[in-house]
Design goal:
Elements: H1 2-23, H2 35-38, H3 51-61, H4 65-82, H5 98-118, H6 121-132
Helix pairs in contact: 4-5, 5-6
Amino acid sequence: MKFLFSSLLALTALAANAAEDAKQPPQALSYPVPAVLAGLDKGHPRLFMKDADLARLKKLAETDVVLQRYVKDALAAADRQLQKKPLEHVIPDGLRLLATSRDCLDRTVALGLAWRWTGDRKYADAGIAGKQGQVPIKMK
């Protein structure tokens, strides 16, 4: 009985503390900015390849047969993406959108790289059209 009383007393004290904490606004958390974030390009930190990198690769591709093969494969992948229907919000297993999300990422990378490499507007237009089919997404 003594144990039960002690347990109830402890639970009551915890509940009172929790109620008091709930009345106070949450404290903002402060995290130090990792060094990797400090080194990001201020103009556009999410680019895979900057203009200078692209120019350097194009120059290298003039003589590097391995790079030429990679470029040919990348452009072929982008051309295959041009043939696909726009993505739809489909959850095949009823739980996850992962397959569609991965397909979206593959398309974005392939078409974006092809557009930046060739300057051919068809790749940019296909990438933009593919995104328009996704917004807004109707959730069920």
